Amino acid sequence: MNTPPFERAVDLVFYAPIGLGLTVVENGPVMLEGFIARGRAEIDRRYEDATRHVTTARSHGEVALAFGLPKLRGRVQRRLEDILDRGNGPAPASTPEPAPPAAPAPEPVASPPFEPYVATIRGVPAAPTNGAATASLPIPGYDELSASQVVERLLGLGRDELEAVREYEATHRNRRTILGKIEQLAS
Fold first, then answer.
1. pLDDT for the residue 120
2. pLDDT tens-digit map of 150-166
3. Is the dihedral of CA 148, 152, 155, 161 positive or negative?
4. Which distant-in-sequence residues (6+ apart) come within 8 Å of 171 by Cβ?
5. How is 41-93 classified by DSSP, letter by letter?
6. Is the pLDDT of residue 122 over 60?
7. At what angle do helices 147-154 and 176-186 cross, to 10 degrees?
8. Rounded to whole angstroms, how far apart are CA atoms 156 and 185?
9. How many whole angstroms separate alpha carbon 71 and alpha carbon 55?
10. Residue 121: what pLDDT?
């Protein structure tokens, strides 16, 4: 194994290229076919991956247009209606005609305060709704909507609108589905 450096140099310069040449001549066609097959398989795999990505992106875009466009139109329509309603200003107040003097009204009978039916969640009744509080929410008819309907409408809201819905929901019905979705969208 201890070959002198001169013989080692002759082996590398003379015999190694001859051996390599003979190996290529004998096994070249088989090796070449193997290289071609491997290259073709790699290109086919990458093409299939790219095609799958393009198809997925296209289907996501179609879904976004199919579902997002109507929601966007609805939001724009609501905003335009709000702007137009604000632009008209309050209706002019008319002065009522004085009523003729009437007999004194009878003394009102004390009755229990009216509490609307509110569905209970896990046995705990929800807080009564407040019309003034829901009027400031960005989702019209909020108290009449189910949790899944509210979650659908959260997607297009801004941070301030999400915070307003979160505060209202936390102090009223405290539905975990809605609060969880708001947390997800806010982050």
1. 40
2. 898 888 888 888 999 99
3. negative
4. 127
5. HHHHHHHHHHHHHHHHHHHHHHHIIIIIHHHHHHHHHHHHHHHHHHHH-SPPP
6. no
7. 10
8. 10
9. 24
10. 42
Residue 121: phi and psi, rounded to 5, are -120, 120
47-80: per-residue pLDDT in tens? 888 888 888 888 888 888 888 888 888 889 888 8
H runs (alpha helix) in the chain: 5-10, 16-63, 69-88, 131-135, 147-154, 159-171, 176-186
Six token digits for residue 120 = 């209970």
SS3 state of residue 173: coil
Report the b/e string of 6-23 with b at 16+ CB within 10 A: eeeeeeeeeeeeeeeeee
Bridge partners, 124 (sequence order)? 121
Helix (H, G, I), strand (E, B) or coil at 138: coil
Confidence check: pLDDT of 179 > 90: yes
Give me the amino acid identity at 63. Answer: V
Q: Supply the pTM of this predicted model.
A: 0.33
127: which 2 tokens?
């807080």
